[in-house]
């Protein structure tokens, strides 16, 4: 009888699911806080969402597209969700956290992102566990971490494919990281 795969902190699925939990926590912190605490929590949320989605688009989605039965449709659905979320996140990223429309739009984004995360976990991530060995998933985790280290830190709608991320990503990342330095209070 085959032994069930063991997930670890070095497993790509564990890594991404843990990031989904961090994203949920940052949404809650942003919604529940005020003033500078809200601004700080939102900046951390934007950064995590941007690097997380870039890494999924560069590493995980291409593997799922090629490897999973029905992978093409699964990934196309996730990319559509990601584009919609990036568009809303980009709009929020340009707003002041005190704007009366900020919280309603943030809650709309929260619902979209958390629904998207559940779909990724159910239709993509846990199916990857069955398709790849512990060693392969550990290698994917290393690739995701490397992609996140150089990913843009703000949303860029329209860059949902691995190719677009490779072409636009380095310049967008440099601009974003300079912008982050300038914005620090």
From TrEMBL:
Q: What Pfam families has UniProt attached to this entry?
A: Hemerythrin
UniProt cross-references to InterPro entries, sorted A to Z: Hemerythrin-like
Residues forming the Hemerythrin-like domain are 12-123
Looking up PANTHER family in the UniProt record yields: HHE DOMAIN PROTEIN (AFU_ORTHOLOGUE AFUA_4G00730)
Question: What is this protein called in UniProt?
Answer: Hemerythrin superfamily protein
